[in-house]
Task: inverse folding
């Protein structure tokens, strides 16, 4: 765009200068022709008075040394040719001599693109004795102007070419920071690396733009770091809240909310893979007596110790949860057979039944267990939990500190 604007401006300037040169040069030639015609008229005026045609002819031939002269003619007041010189065959006069009254007033000039004609009255002591007609060709002037214009056009073409090369260099140098800034912006948008910075090469508009861009990157980097830290804190707090929501605050075991979700998940996995799993419903014996006789602090200590003992005998894949109060549940996934769950129930009862002393006082704590199997006894969480709960009550009626299977009589 800069090159186009520069080219149009230079071409317009060239056209205006060429036109002005043509009109100025033509005006100077017209003026020179008028002066020459007036001088020649003064020279031939005595010859007109004395009717000396040979002398007038010699004077015209001497005047005809001018290269652009086409015709010079002396006419009598009546319009007859007194003397004449013509280059080659020439062309006839474009008009006849003006009336003498008009000739006395002023000279007459006719100018075209090809030639000019000057009509000058010949006076002797303010008396018009004839008319001098002078015709000159403008071909030489036109050729000179065209030659000058061609040279100027060539110079302008060279100048435009030089300007084009210079503008390319300047453009590359001026746009290099913008191109680098654009590439950096694309890299940052793609990689999300806000630690990058653009180099400031010059203290101009582009340099100020680069500085503002770097300031923006710095703010984004700080904002991103703050956001990342905030997200980490929120994530950590969320994990803590989730742990609090899914953990029993006293025993540290998973609570009922966690148990319900895990039971659903293990049941779905067992059904999908056709695996045997079991659910134990565990209720502590004589826990109300401990609370009433020895206080809630002793009861809390009993719950913590019983939880530790039960956790020590279960498998690493089993899920032991406290449902609330003195009720616990144990999810047993991927069992090889039902007897494995029964053996584990007996070990758990034995572990709880070991003498438990709090503040030097023996606590009469035992455990009663109800067993239910999936998919043997139930295939959904609610039915399986109800089946294990009913089995636990059967074990309670059987004398406590024992276990029962759902819909079966165990030992």
Result:
């Amino acid at each position: 765009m800069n090159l186009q604007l520069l080219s149009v401006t230079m071409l317009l300037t060239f056209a205006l200068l060429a036109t002005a040169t043509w009109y100025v040069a033509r005006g100077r030639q017209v003026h020179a022709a008028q002066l020459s015609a007036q001088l020649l008229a003064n020279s031939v005026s005595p010859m007109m008075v004395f009717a000396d045609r040979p002398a007038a002819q010699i004077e015209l031939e001497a005047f005809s040394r001018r290269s652009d002269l086409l015709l010079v003619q002396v006419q009598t007041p009546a319009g007859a040719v007194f003397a004449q010189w013509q280059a080659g065959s020439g062309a006839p006069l474009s008009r006849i001599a003006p009336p003498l009254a008009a000739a006395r007033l002023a000279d007459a000039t006719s100018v075209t693109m090809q030639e000019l004609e000057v009509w000058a009255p010949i006076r002797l002591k303010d008396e018009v004795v004839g008319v001098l007609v002078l015709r000159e060709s403008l071909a030489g002037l036109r050729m000179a102007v065209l030659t000058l214009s061609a040279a100027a056009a060539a110079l302008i073409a060279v100048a435009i070419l030089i300007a084009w090369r210079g503008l390319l260099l300047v453009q590359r140098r001026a746009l290099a920071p913008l191109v680098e800034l654009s590439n950096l912006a694309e890299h940052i948008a793609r990689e999300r690396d806000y630690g990058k910075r653009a180099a400031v090469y010059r203290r101009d508009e582009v340099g100020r733009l680069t500085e503002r861009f770097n300031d923006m990157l710095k703010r984004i980097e700080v904002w991103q770091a703050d956001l990342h830290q905030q997200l980490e804190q929120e994530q950590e707090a969320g994990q803590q809240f989730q742990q609090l929501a899914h953990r029993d605050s006293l025993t540290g075991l998973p609570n009922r909310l966690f148990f319900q979700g895990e039971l659903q998940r293990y049941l779905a996995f067992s059904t999908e893979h056709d695996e045997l799993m079991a659910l134990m419903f565990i209720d502590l014996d004589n826990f109300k007596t401990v609370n009433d006789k020895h206080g809630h602090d002793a009861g809390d200590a009993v719950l913590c110790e019983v939880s530790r003992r039960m956790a020590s005998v279960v498998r690493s894949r089993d899920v032991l949860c406290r449902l609330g109060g003195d009720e616990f549940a144990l999810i047993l996934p991927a069992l090889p057979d039902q007897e494995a769950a029964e053996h584990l129930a007996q070990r758990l009862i034995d572990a709880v039944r070991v003498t438990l002393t709090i503040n030097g006082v023996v606590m009469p704590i035992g455990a009663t267990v109800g067993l239910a199997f999936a998919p043997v006894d139930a295939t959904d969480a609610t039915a399986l939990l109800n089946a294990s709960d009913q089995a636990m009550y059967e074990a309670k009626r059987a004398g406590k500190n024992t276990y029962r299977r759902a819909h079966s009589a165990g030992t």
In short: The chain has two domains: 2-143, 256-405. The first helix runs from residue 2 to 49.
